[in-house]
Design goal:
Elements: H1 12-20, H2 28-38, E1 43-46, H3 53-64, E2 75-78, H4 82-96, E3 101-104, H5 111-119, E4 123-126, H6 128-136, E5 147-151, H7 153-158, H8 162-170, E6 177-182, H9 188-196, E7 201-204, H10 210-213, E8 216-221, H11 227-237, E9 241-245, H12 248-260, E10 265-268, H13 274-285, E11 291-295, E12 309-312, H14 319-326, E13 337-342, H15 347-357, E14 363-364, H16 368-374, H17 477-484, H18 537-545, H19 550-559, H20 563-572, H21 602-607
Parallel strand pairs: 1-6, 1-7, 2-4, 2-5, 3-4, 5-6, 8-13, 8-14, 9-11, 9-12, 10-11, 12-13
Helix pairs in contact: 2-3, 3-4, 14-15
Length: about 600
């Protein structure tokens, strides 16, 4: 006869909290261990994954734990992965009441964990790595811990956490109560039991591999070239599916491939942040994701109900890893499919693994239809499809010609110096013929379609600067001649939106001005220097032929002009060069006399 939680000695508050969640009868491992744990005895329990071990050790912890001081927790739960630590914390909080429970693990910031420890944590759920980091930083001490639980102890040993677990147990109280739960109790787990438990009560529940024996195991012969396509067909046939890869990069590559073929998939492994892992796990649990690609590190941290299939994309390292992976499906008496992709060079290792686990299955060719018949019906009727990409619509045909939004020239018909342009772009074959010759026309630069363009404008046409013949694309030769002979417009009428069109603050010689751009002042002129607009070729010739003196260098420094710039401009004979004055007829032609300043030092002062 199955006993109830109340008959096992569970307080009424916890019984009501479990009843609100629909948990009225204890599972086998819970009925076997709760009574002994409430009495204060060390417990060593073997039970398969997903058999209710969290409630089995969570109820005794909540009942027996005392009030903790800041930075000194009273109970400690060690878990191998972040997901498992978070799930234990969430599960225990449902019936913990006022007991303070907090989880510490890597992949997240230290700030919230520091704050929780300063306020006080009664039950601390931790991963060994982050817990040792916090102890090294003196964020907490384990001296007051008198209740210890090691969950998934065999996985701890496989991941290499046993040295850390031993160091942490050595820092706890000597008269502690130690409870250990694992899927297997051999090897390193047996040594840990012998060294850190006193007169432990051992409970073994169910078969050693119940989850994998109740599932259908299928082995497909594949090649490395077509593995990705075959895995897509398998996931599309039976889902929700958990696909296991050996490495992090392999998990990311496979998830991207499944997304590319229209299967909603996400990756979860140790290289992702905790928020990314929790978000992917939540979407998979809610049915928003067909495939969850995981590495071996996350195998024990995934607790999702109604998983239809488990796919071994990469072969497991040993038969224990195969059991851990396959335990994600066929839980609580439900069916499931375990699919393994076997390469030709992996066939011998797969056969040896099957003998160790106790499975006898042939190697067959991939068949998605047969796989669908072996699996239970999908939990969700319609597979979630990835968000379709928005089509790119080219709306240039709906815009006005030379619209600003497509990088063309604005309609300049409203400007006083331009003529109305055509309502449509030029069409037809590109004209051929010789390029027009002759002097460059003055005034604003004009395009061949009749519009105008200023030199500082940001609205450039894609066809700006193309070679064209003497006949314009939208006008005759007479129109072109009329445009060339048009007089230059007044610069004061330019728009101030273009730097090249702004009115000049002062006059001055032109310095590299373009045709039709107007006269720009010489910025490097010396204050008081005459600003000339004309072109005196005789003075330019004399200045270029006169030998250069030291006074010229000083004069150039005062005017802000480099000596080599003035010399080059005078040699060319451009009117834009600054005009220098001749000081040869004045005294001190070589420059003002240098006045010597005598510096007074401390020795000179003492001599005086």
């Amino acid at each position: 006869m199955t006993r109830t939680f109340a008959q096992l000695g569970v307080p009424e508050k916890i019984v009501k909290a479990l009843d609100r969640r629909g948990i009225t009868q204890p599972f086998e491992i819970q009925a076997a261990t709760i009574a002994d744990a409430l009495e204060g005895r060390d417990v060593c329990g073997r039970a398969p994954t997903g058999s209710g071990k969290t409630i089995a050790f969570g109820i005794p912890l909540v009942v027996k734990v005392g009030r903790a001081e800041p930075r000194r927790p009273r109970a400690l739960v060690l878990a191998p992965t972040r997901e498992l630590a978070e799930q234990i914390t969430t599960e225990m909080r449902t019936f913990a009441g006022p007991v303070r429970i907090h989880a510490v693990y890597g992949g997240v910031g230290y700030g919230p964990q520091y704050n929780a420890l300063r306020q006080g944590v009664d039950i601390l759920v931790a991963c060994p790595g982050r817990l040792e980091d916090l102890i090294t930083q003196k964020a907490l001490k384990l001296d007051d811990v008198d209740l210890v639980v090691i969950d998934e102890a065999d996985r701890m040993a496989d991941m290499g956490f046993m040295p850390s677990v031993r160091r942490l147990l050595d820092q706890t109280a000597e008269d502690r109560q130690t409870m250990m739960y694992s899927a297997t109790l051999d090897g390193d787990v047996a040594k840990l039991t012998r060294d850190y438990q006193t007169d432990a009560v051992r409970h073994e529940v169910g078969e050693e591999t119940p989850d994998i024996t109740s599932a259908s195991h299928v082995f497909w012969k594949v090649n490395r070239a077509n593995r990705n396509d075959i895995i897509a067909e398998a996931v599309n046939a039976v889902w929700p599916a958990i696909v296991f890869c050996r490495t992090r990069h392999g998990s990311d590559r496979l998830a991207k491939h499944l997304e590319s073929v229209g299967i909603k998939a996400g990756a979860i492994h140790g290289g992702r942040s905790q928020n990314q892992r929790m978000r992917a796990l939540a979407e998979f649990s809610k049915g928003k994701m067909q495939a969850l690609v995981a590495s071996d590190v996350a195998a024990r941290g995934i607790h999702v109900d109604n998983v239809a299939s488990v796919v071994h994309f990469d072969p497991p390292d040993d038969h224990k890893t195969y059991v851990h992976r396959s335990g994600r499906t066929a839980r609580a008496g439900q069916g499931g499919v375990v699919l393994s992709l076997v390469l030709p060079e992996q066939a011998r290792d797969a056969q040896r693994m099957m003998r160790q686990v106790g499975i006898d299955a042939p190697f067959i060719t991939p068949d998605a239809v047969a796989l669908r018949e072996l699996s239970p019906a999908p939990l969700y009727k319609a597979a979630p499809s990835p968000k379709p990409a928005e089509p790119i619509v080219d709306d240039r045909s709906e815009l006005e010609p030379w619209d600003d939004r497509i990088g063309g020239r604005p309609n300049s018909s409203d400007k006083p110096h331009s003529s109305p342009q055509s309502d449509s772009r030029p069409s037809g074959p590109r004209p051929s013929g010789p390029r027009p010759s002759g002097p460059r026309p003055s005034g604003p630069r004009r395009n061949l379609e009749g519009g105008s363009r200023s030199y500082g404008s940001k609205n450039r046409s894609p066809s700006f600067g193309r070679k064209r013949d003497s006949v314009g694309a939208s006008g005759s030769e007479s129109d072109r001649t009329e445009q060339r002979e048009r007089p230059a417009f007044d610069p004061s009428k330019r728009s101030v939106s273009d730097p090249a069109k702004r009115p000049f603050k002062s006059g001055g010689p032109s310095y590299g001005a373009r045709p039709g751009q107007g006269v720009r002042p010489f910025q490097g002129a010396r204050p008081g220097q005459a600003k000339r607009q004309g072109n005196d070729s005789r003075e330019d010739t004399a200045a270029a032929s006169r030998p250069r003196t030291s006074a010229d260098s000083r004069e150039g420094a005062r005017s802000g002009t480099k000596p080599w710039e003035s010399r080059k401009a005078n040699q060319v004979g451009r009117s834009s060069a600054p005009q220098r004055k001749d000081f040869s007829d004045r005294p001190f032609a070589s420059g003002p006399p240098t006045r010597k300043i005598r510096r007074t030092t401390s020795r000179t002062k003492s001599a005086k």
